[in-house]
Amino acid sequence: RWVAAEAGKIGCKAALYNHGGWYGEPENQIAILDELKMPNAGIVYNFHHGHPHIARFPAMMQRMKPHLLALNINGMKADGNPKILGVGKGDQEQAMLRAVVESGWKGPVGILGHQAERDAEEAVRENLDGIRKLRAQLG
User: Fold this and answer.
1) What is the spatial distance between Cα 96 and Cα 35, in angstroms, rounded to a whole number?
2) Which residue stretches of the chain have pLDDT < 50?
3) What is the pTM assigned to this prediction?
4) How far is CA 63 from CA 77, 102, 108, 114, in A?
Protein backbone atom coordinates (compact mmCIF):
# COMPACT_ATOMS: atom_id res chain seq x y z
CA ARG A 1 0.00 0.00 0.00
CA TRP A 2 2.78 2.43 0.94
CA VAL A 3 4.65 1.92 -2.36
CA ALA A 4 1.48 2.43 -4.42
CA ALA A 5 0.54 5.51 -2.38
CA GLU A 6 3.98 7.06 -2.85
CA ALA A 7 3.97 6.22 -6.56
CA GLY A 8 0.54 7.80 -6.90
CA LYS A 9 1.81 11.08 -5.42
CA ILE A 10 4.05 11.51 -8.47
CA GLY A 11 1.59 10.16 -11.02
CA CYS A 12 3.12 6.68 -11.27
CA LYS A 13 1.85 3.13 -10.92
CA ALA A 14 3.16 0.29 -8.80
CA ALA A 15 3.18 -3.22 -10.21
CA LEU A 16 3.47 -6.67 -8.70
CA TYR A 17 5.87 -8.87 -10.65
CA ASN A 18 5.53 -12.66 -10.81
CA HIS A 19 8.90 -13.87 -9.61
CA GLY A 20 8.13 -17.25 -8.09
CA GLY A 21 6.94 -18.43 -4.71
CA TRP A 22 3.62 -17.53 -3.08
CA TYR A 23 3.97 -13.90 -4.09
CA GLY A 24 4.59 -14.79 -7.73
CA GLU A 25 1.29 -16.62 -8.14
CA PRO A 26 -1.07 -14.37 -10.10
CA GLU A 27 -4.08 -15.50 -8.07
CA ASN A 28 -2.32 -14.27 -4.90
CA GLN A 29 -1.33 -11.03 -6.59
CA ILE A 30 -4.96 -10.46 -7.61
CA ALA A 31 -6.05 -11.08 -4.01
CA ILE A 32 -3.49 -8.50 -2.82
CA LEU A 33 -4.73 -5.95 -5.38
CA ASP A 34 -8.38 -6.64 -4.51
CA GLU A 35 -7.54 -5.93 -0.87
CA LEU A 36 -5.59 -2.76 -1.68
CA LYS A 37 -8.26 -1.28 -3.95
CA MET A 38 -5.75 1.23 -5.34
CA PRO A 39 -6.29 2.33 -8.95
CA ASN A 40 -2.58 2.79 -9.61
CA ALA A 41 -1.57 -0.74 -8.51
CA GLY A 42 -1.48 -3.67 -10.89
CA ILE A 43 0.49 -6.57 -12.34
CA VAL A 44 3.36 -6.90 -14.79
CA TYR A 45 3.24 -10.52 -15.90
CA ASN A 46 6.38 -12.17 -17.23
CA PHE A 47 6.19 -15.28 -19.38
CA HIS A 48 9.69 -16.35 -18.35
CA HIS A 49 8.55 -16.71 -14.73
CA GLY A 50 5.30 -18.37 -15.79
CA HIS A 51 6.30 -21.90 -16.72
CA PRO A 52 4.26 -23.34 -13.82
CA HIS A 53 1.24 -21.38 -15.11
CA ILE A 54 1.22 -22.56 -18.75
CA ALA A 55 -1.64 -25.06 -18.37
CA ARG A 56 -3.91 -22.57 -16.64
CA PHE A 57 -2.76 -19.44 -18.47
CA PRO A 58 -5.94 -18.80 -20.54
CA ALA A 59 -8.17 -18.72 -17.44
CA MET A 60 -5.52 -16.86 -15.48
CA MET A 61 -5.25 -14.25 -18.24
CA GLN A 62 -8.96 -13.53 -17.91
CA ARG A 63 -8.56 -13.01 -14.16
CA MET A 64 -5.42 -10.86 -14.54
CA LYS A 65 -6.83 -8.72 -17.36
CA PRO A 66 -8.38 -5.95 -15.19
CA HIS A 67 -5.11 -5.63 -13.26
CA LEU A 68 -2.58 -6.15 -16.04
CA LEU A 69 -0.35 -3.11 -16.64
CA ALA A 70 2.12 -4.83 -18.99
CA LEU A 71 3.07 -8.23 -20.34
CA ASN A 72 6.65 -9.36 -20.95
CA ILE A 73 6.86 -12.19 -23.47
CA ASN A 74 9.49 -14.66 -24.58
CA GLY A 75 9.70 -18.13 -26.05
CA MET A 76 8.23 -20.77 -23.76
CA LYS A 77 8.93 -24.51 -23.70
CA ALA A 78 6.60 -26.76 -21.75
CA ASP A 79 9.48 -28.25 -19.77
CA GLY A 80 10.84 -24.78 -18.91
CA ASN A 81 14.28 -25.51 -20.31
CA PRO A 82 15.80 -23.20 -21.20
CA LYS A 83 13.88 -20.64 -19.18
CA ILE A 84 14.51 -17.78 -21.59
CA LEU A 85 14.14 -18.21 -25.33
CA GLY A 86 13.52 -15.81 -28.16
CA VAL A 87 9.86 -15.26 -29.03
CA GLY A 88 8.80 -17.89 -31.56
CA LYS A 89 11.47 -20.38 -30.44
CA GLY A 90 9.28 -22.21 -27.94
CA ASP A 91 6.34 -24.59 -28.17
CA GLN A 92 3.95 -22.76 -25.82
CA GLU A 93 4.01 -19.00 -26.41
CA GLN A 94 1.74 -19.12 -29.45
CA ALA A 95 -1.09 -20.62 -27.39
CA MET A 96 -0.38 -18.20 -24.55
CA LEU A 97 -0.46 -15.23 -26.92
CA ARG A 98 -3.68 -16.55 -28.45
CA ALA A 99 -5.18 -16.43 -24.95
CA VAL A 100 -4.01 -12.81 -24.62
CA VAL A 101 -5.57 -11.88 -27.98
CA GLU A 102 -8.81 -13.72 -27.19
CA SER A 103 -9.03 -11.97 -23.81
CA GLY A 104 -9.25 -8.62 -25.58
CA TRP A 105 -6.51 -7.15 -23.40
CA LYS A 106 -4.71 -4.17 -24.92
CA GLY A 107 -1.59 -2.83 -23.31
CA PRO A 108 2.18 -2.62 -23.38
CA VAL A 109 4.09 -5.75 -24.34
CA GLY A 110 7.78 -6.04 -23.56
CA ILE A 111 10.55 -8.37 -24.59
CA LEU A 112 13.48 -9.14 -22.34
CA GLY A 113 17.15 -9.28 -23.20
CA HIS A 114 18.07 -11.48 -20.23
CA GLN A 115 20.72 -13.34 -22.17
CA ALA A 116 24.02 -12.01 -20.87
CA GLU A 117 26.02 -14.08 -23.36
CA ARG A 118 24.29 -12.40 -26.31
CA ASP A 119 24.43 -8.98 -27.80
CA ALA A 120 21.28 -7.05 -26.85
CA GLU A 121 20.66 -5.87 -30.42
CA GLU A 122 20.83 -9.45 -31.68
CA ALA A 123 18.36 -10.59 -28.99
CA VAL A 124 15.93 -7.77 -29.82
CA ARG A 125 16.08 -8.56 -33.54
CA GLU A 126 15.47 -12.26 -32.87
CA ASN A 127 12.46 -11.43 -30.68
CA LEU A 128 11.02 -9.00 -33.22
CA ASP A 129 11.34 -11.64 -35.95
CA GLY A 130 9.56 -14.13 -33.69
CA ILE A 131 6.80 -11.63 -32.93
CA ARG A 132 6.26 -11.04 -36.66
CA LYS A 133 6.06 -14.79 -37.25
CA LEU A 134 3.59 -15.38 -34.42
CA ARG A 135 1.54 -12.33 -35.35
CA ALA A 136 1.07 -13.74 -38.87
CA GLN A 137 0.04 -17.11 -37.40
CA LEU A 138 -2.35 -15.52 -34.91
CA GLY A 139 -3.90 -13.18 -37.48
Assistant:
1) 28
2) none
3) 0.92
4) 23, 13, 18, 27
